[in-house]
């Protein structure tokens, strides 16, 4: 029992000593405290004011190569028709005055026509059999054609280098004819 009492006394003494060491009550400064305070020991605090953030500059909207009317009052803009390697990529933007207007396009009905040969070219599929187009669910491309425009794209086998222009056919959208191909 004496051993337990000693342990309890030692613990109580240590706790009391730690509380005394942590005493933060204000004391009057003694001459020893004043002597220990030198200009090097002072702390200068500077309040940092938050800087005003510069407004984020929006990039200007990309100019359309051609624009055509779509269904339900939507407008479809052709933004790009370019060949990289053996692949032609077309990028389109869909917008509408309506707050909510979404378009669903059957990807099987999207085609590019080589104006030089009149050959119809369909959207490419990858090795897994997936359409090489944006926002594809099943066989449909879905995009929001609202006040904030929706962007969608599709990839096709490139027409021959001798073909200078193509025409693009989308269901329920007027055709994009004589589109120059960028190589």
Provide a descriptive summary of the structure in words.
The chain is 14% helix and 33% strand. With 183 residues, it is of the alpha+beta class. The longest helix is centred in the N-terminal third of the chain and has 20 residues. The relative contact order is 0.18. The N terminus is likely disordered.
Can you describe this structure in just a few lines?
The protein is an alpha+beta fold and 183 residues long. Helix content is 14%, strand content 33%.
Descriptive key words:
183 residues; alpha+beta; 4-stranded antiparallel beta sheet; 11 strands; disordered N terminus
Mean pLDDT: 75
Number of E strands: 11
Low-confidence stretches: 1-22
Helix vs. strand class: alpha+beta
The side-by-side strand order for the widest beta sheet comes to: 1-2-3-9
Largest sheet entry: 4 strands, antiparallel
Distance between the termini: 95 Å
Order of helices and strands: HHEEEEEEEEEEE
Which overall shape is indicated by the principal axes computed on the Cα atoms? elongated
Sheet-strand content, in percent, reads 25-35%
Which percent bin holds the helix content?
10-25%
**Helix run count:** 2
Rg, rounded, reads: 36 Å
